[in-house]
Amino acid sequence: MMTNLRLIFLFFVLLSVQEKFFGQMNVRFSGNAPEWAGYHIVFSRTSNFIIPETTSFIVLQINNDGYFDFSFEVEETTLLFADVGRFRASIFVEPNMDYTLAFPPFELKTEAQRLNPLFQPEEITFGIKNREAQALNRNILEFNEAFDYQFSSNAIPIFTFGNNAIVQEIETSLEKQFNYSHPFFNKHKELSYMKLRQLSQRMQERPFINHLSQLEPAYNMPVYWDVFKSFVSGFLPGNFSGTSNINFSAAINSNMRFDSLATVLTTDTIFKRREFAEISLLFTLYESYYNNSISKSSCLTIVASAVDYASTSKNREIARDFYKSMTRLLPGTAAPEFALFNKKGKIKELKDYSGKFVYLNFMHTRNHACLNDLRTMETLERIFRKDLEIVTIFINEDADDMTDFLKKNSQYKWEFLHFGAQQRIMFDYNIKAVPVYYLIDPNGNLALSPAPAPNENFRQVFAETFQEYKRNQLRKNPQKERSIFDL
After folding, report:
1. Do the domains 339-475 and 22-131 match in fold?
2. 310: Cβ–Cβ under 8 A, 6 or more apart, which residues?
């Protein structure tokens, strides 16, 4: 009897450990999508709605007959989306819910759309076939349509005359129309109404921020971040009104550690909730970094400390995303990796050029400025080939354009790659127009970001950068003085 009891006890202990460490699969996607048979569909979530930053969440495998059945875990209601052909389909998933999904029509992106870094997929929602799982998504979709119509129709009179009566009338009408009760949906509606009220009560930031701060941060709710950015943007540090005798702006500029700075912020009653104070401080530092209202070095130092000292894992994740975004392409940071095909069809990676400086440039074969610079780079390649690797990435939609161009211009002897195998490189290197240049040092770090064009005194700048790098290497690894024992 005691042995049986021990076995039963051990079973429940192992079950609890399994749930703790492996999670309980509490959401299920199933269905049949014959057109998408054999495809692997990546579902992602937005981990940071401010940047925005997205992360892959699950991969749904559709078998060769078009059927799929996949279970996974979510801790709270979460918005997931998947790029399926030329569409971006989304769905709010709730814990402990099964969804029989209906996929959009099978319409793949054209080659031009696939290679266009600025292409925006058409946004739609996944169909849900089982009635019991439809309520939340259907109500959010229909509410958003009704709210957006009312907002656009009445925004001018509300804003111009501060007409609270219209705001109240809209809220009452929408509440009668959408009486479905669900914690996530109720909060979604409340936050949407706050956007309306803000229109009618301009120059009253503190009451609105105070109201928002009373709510638990909704990290997975898009409308929460819409309202948050609208209310908090530009508010700090100038409108801080805490009981602390510390000057908040001076504390930021003194590079006070993030957790200490957040504690100062909580002395202002509208930032009393610690989580809200921290995300407000993080957003202020992120925003100020780009509008130069606070020194960049202070913003970077404090956000870096938030990665370790923010009070919750979600706020630390936000801090990591912000820091990564703020330091992207900064001189001294690691250059973004890539793996692209060269003219011979061979994959080339950034690490293949380690040990030499890399003059990385982005070009288009039909751009006049690019063609001029390529002619100048021919001279640079001959002069600096011992210490400098020139790597040109063509962003033409068709890779054959690169092949044809190089056949006609065989005098160009350096490395040419096509971006098609990794379109994300356009984002990683912030390519908005061409030509664009970066100089990467032998260790894979950005030395000049951006770098001068070939005709912009590049020779002198590279020579100075090269000599400085050599001097730094000697300081780090001084040559040993030879003695008679080395003979």
Report:
1. no
2. 258, 259, 262, 278, 282, 316, 318, 319
| Residues 348, 417 contacting (CB under 8 angstroms) | yes
Number of H helices, E strands in the chain: 16, 16
117: pLDDT strictly greater than 80: no
Q: What are the tens digits of pLDDT across the range 341-371?
A: 999 999 999 999 999 999 999 999 999 999 9
Is the pLDDT score of 379 beyond 90? yes
Give the C-alpha separation, 395 to 116, whole Å: 9
Domain range list for the chain: 22-131, 134-202, 218-327, 339-475
The residues facing 90 across adjacent strands are 81, 125
Four-CA torsion 50, 52, 57, 62, nearest 10 degrees: 140
- The label of the residue with tokens 């994740």 reads 317
**Yes or no: domain 22-131 corresponds to CATH 1.10.287:** no
Task: Count CB neighbours of 305 within 10 A.
Answer: 19
What is the Cα–Cα distance from 119 to 117, expressed in whole angstroms?
6
Q: 417: burial class by Cβ within 10 Å (0-12, 13-18, 19+)?
A: buried
Rounded to the nearest integer, the mean pLDDT of the chain is: 91
pLDDT(480) > 70: no
Query: First and final CA of the chain: distance in angstroms?
Result: 83
Give the CA diameter of the chain: 96
DSSP run (H or E) holding 265: helix 258-265
What CATH class is the domain 339-475? alpha beta
What's the pLDDT at 18?
A: 45
The answer to whether residue 486 scores a pLDDT higher than 80 is no
Cα separation, 428 vs 430, in Å, equals 6
d(CA 26, CA 45): 17
Q: Which pair of tokens denotes residue 387?
A: 């210490």
Residues facing 58 on adjacent strands = 43
The 10 Å CB-count burial string (b at 16+, else e) for 102-125 is ebbeeeeeeeeeebeeeeeeeeeb
- The candidate with the shortest Cα–Cα distance to 281, out of 301, 304, 302, 295, is 302
Please state, as a whole number, how many other Cβ atoms lie within 10 Å of the Cβ of residue 324: 15
**What is the pTM (predicted TM-score) of this model?**
0.80
Buried b (16+ CB within 10 A) or exposed e, 445-454: ebbbbebbbb
